Amino acid sequence: MDDRDRDATPELRADDLARLVEHVDAGPAVVLGSSGGAVSALALVQARPDLVDTVIAHEPPLNELLDERAELRARTAGIAATHLAGDHEGAFREFLALADIDLPEEVFRHMVGGERSAQDVADADYQHSAMLVPTTRWVPDTDVLRAAPTRIVVGIGEESAGQLCDRTSRALAAALGVAPTMFPGDHVGFAGDPEGFATRLREVIKG
Fold it and tell me: Exposed, middle or buried: residue 28 (CB in 10 Å: 0-12, 13-18, 19+)?
């Protein structure tokens, strides 16, 4: 998408994914999405189930499925506002608190410190101005998803217990009437244990 003043909604990203799958003539595809990517993947199934054989939605932040949705909306908007006001570090601390992710201070400093390129800054600004709120406020049509021919796998990290995306994923799985599928690690298990995650992913795809 070239228009950076337009919100990157899950529907818009799903349309991009559909065009990509059709362009490379790769459908019906197996699609893995994690976090916001999982929301995009679910939106793709909802719009074009004919293009997706299996979707693995790993820890989608579907905040609207939780009882505390109003509080989560306000806090998420606050994170975006903090970042766009120029406090990159403060916004990241607010995000971790909202996500119930506890990082050691030295790990936090490593992640937020260092030189940021102009592209890094622009991408982070876009994430907070156009993607964060539309993604977390997206409400899946679970009736449509249940009726789709697509196999839907809801993935959760084995070390994510109690975290926000553990709760949203379990809420989604319950709404779809499926059992969650566990993966190694936490919300970013694919980065912490890429080999273990890949092995588990192959098992899941094989069914």
Answer: middle
| Six-digit token string for 32 | 């893995």
* Residue-wise pLDDT tens digits, 112-169: 887 889 998 999 999 999 999 999 999 999 999 999 999 999 999 999 999 999 999 9
State pTM to two decimals.
0.94
- Give the whole-angstrom CA distance, residue 124 versus residue 43: 23
In DSSP terms, 29 is beta-bridged to 52
Hunting for tokens 């679970």 — which residue is that? Answer: 142
Specify whether the CB–CB gap between 159 and 61 falls below 8 A. no
Kindly report, residue by residue over 58-99, the tens digit of the pLDDT. 999 999 999 999 999 999 999 999 999 999 999 999 999 999
Residue 151: strand pairing partners: 54
One-letter identity of residue 64: E
DSSP class of residue 27 equals P
Q: Is 20 helix (H, G, I), strand (E, B) or coil?
A: helix
